[in-house]
Amino acid sequence: MDLHKKHGIKLSLSGLIITLGIVYGDIGTSPLYTFKAITGGLSVLKPEYIYGAVSLVIWTLTILTTIKYVTFTLKADNKGEGGIFSLFALIRRRVPKAYLLAIIGGSALLADGIITPAITVTTAVEGLKVVDPVLPVIPIVIGIITVLFMMQQFGTKILGRSFGPIMLGWFLMLAILGGIQVMHHPAIIKSLNPYYGYVLLRDYPGAIILMGAVFLATTGAEALYSDMGHVGAKNIRYSWIFVKVTLILNYMGQGAWVLEHPDTFKSVPSIFYSLMPSWFIIPGIIISTAAAVIASQALISGSFTLISEATSLRFWPRQRLRYPSDIKGQVYVPSINWMLWAFCLFVVIYFKSSTNMEAMYGLAITITMLSTTFLMSMWLRIKKVNPAFILIFMAVFLTIEGTFFVANVTKFVHGGWFSVLMALIFITVMYVWFNGRKIKNSFLMFVKIKPYISLLHDISLDKTIPKYATHLVYITRANNVDEIESKIAYSIVNKQPKRADVYWFLHVDILDEPDTFEYKVTTFDQGKIYKVDLRLGFKVKPKVEIYFRQVIDDMVKNNEVDIISRYQSLRNHDIMGDFKYVFIDRVVNNDHDFTPHQKFVMQIYNMVRVMSIPDWKGLGMDTSNVYVDRIPLNVDLKYSRMMRRCGTEDRTRDAER
């Protein structure tokens, strides 16, 4: 069976239109600001510069977007899912250290999610200056962005249906506006020849700065891969043909317009809006703003999905997730939503214009692209692709993306610092959270359940111990079906004996595959001790209590367990017994001999922890049935040095007397 039939939207005309609304918002709105950035530093216009610049844009779209992402990267699908975290999930068992690349690339992509809404909406609204040069743009932009983020909590099911048709109209508008200008200056067709781009890079003194502007044309390429799970690879591949043609026509049209207006192109508010006849300015601004909002929506939704996947991969503290609609994969993360909103407003208010924002745009996404290239090379090696091909793949794309990275580094002091700062903040959180959990997990000790069966059975029957619950459910991290953490045994037996009629050990295994939804039950003492392993894909909604209840129902139907209350008065009326869930909170003490690196990580980890909701909330548990048992990490530690008892000889002599 083809993957696109099982995952995403089936290849069809309607699927292609939906893909336009979901995938191409970012790269599709690049014509709003890219050419303005390309011509921004020109003092003297030379036709060769325009031909070369348009050629560089065309071949950047071809090499990076078409060849790297559409042709090759879309093949690296994780059961139909795409994106840098899905790519990492494919290789993490073979290359565990690759988590650093995934963290860096994912963090840079989140930083891009902050910048895109600000620059796209601002650029679109700035078209109003063509109508009224003194019109205040910033308040309008702030209003649009605020409404956009407020809408996230309600989902985009209704509005989402219009995204595809609106973007179809947008791309047709790009093609028509550009095509008309190409007819006025047909010589611009020469820019299809990559030789003009080569000559410009060879002869133009500011070529490296120019490349930073050219890169803006392909900043949304990573979204093609990230959104594969929503629409399917085939819909992306076929729709990209149409999208690429319209983009090239528009870029050529803007180049043609500049060549036709060599004396005025520097003074116009927007080259993009200058392509429009005066009667179409207002409708064009409305369509452009709608496209900018859709592009922003795509990046915001993508950020939610990214955080959801990062949480599943233990890169990010648990967040409260909501699912505002039944659209596949749509998730809403309230804390991230308002964080993005605050940062977007800062960008708009601080940088004030799209021209200033262009300087910070592009640097973060080049980091993501470089990370994806490295991860792709690892995936290709795992797939046993010819090493010569992998070497060529790496050489070509690292050279191109490395050049763009250097070009964008030149923007650092002019605004690029902000995207780097945001990426560093996200990298720090992910690195500390991932490694902090690893440090805590290094103190985990697992024990076999079998030696405790008799003891737990006796505790269950010991009426001198106060009854703790009818069904006592411990959440365990033990992957092996016959093991639990030693701290669970300590909690039940040593800390405070906990008598229950039935003991359950519940293990939740988040898999690299996105949609797995299954369970396994292991019986250790019929009617007394069970272990349940839930195997969930990383995109399955975390509703563990509901899933556990489903397991219980299945077991009751199969006469495997009795869940009726053991209190006789309640049992006479077939009342279901009570369930109590226990989470072990492993407390970090101050007496551990951590290395300096571990001390640093754990100090930051404890600060970052305030961002996280408790594990039981993250797993969708009912608060009234949950107890958190706080147990020090060092309960299981062996003594590294034995103390010598002093005064032994004196006491021996006294005893002899």
Tag the structure with descriptive keywords.
29 helices, alpha/beta, disordered N terminus, 2 domains, 6-stranded mixed sheet, Amino acid/polyamine transporter I, 657 residues
Would you mind describing this structure in some detail?
The protein has two domains: about 5-435, Up-down Bundle (Amino acid/polyamine transporter I), CATH 1.20.1740; about 445-635, no CATH class. β5 (about 515-525) and β6 (about 530-535) form a beta hairpin. It is an alpha/beta fold and about 650 residues long. Helix content is about 60%, strand content about 10%. The chain has 29 helices and eight strands. α6 runs parallel beside α20. The strands form two sheets. It has a six-stranded mixed sheet with strand order 5-6-4-2-7-8. The chain has helices at about 5, 15-25, 25-30, 35-40, 45-70, 85-90, 100-125, 130, 135-150, 155-185, 195-205, 205-215, 220-225, 230, 235-260, 270-275, 280-310, 335-350, 355-360, 365-380, 385-410, 415-440, 455-460, 485-495, 545-555, 570, 595-610, 615-620, 650-655; strands at about 445-450, 465-475, 485, 500-510, 515-525, 530-535, 580-585, 625-630. The protein starts with a helix and ends with a helix.
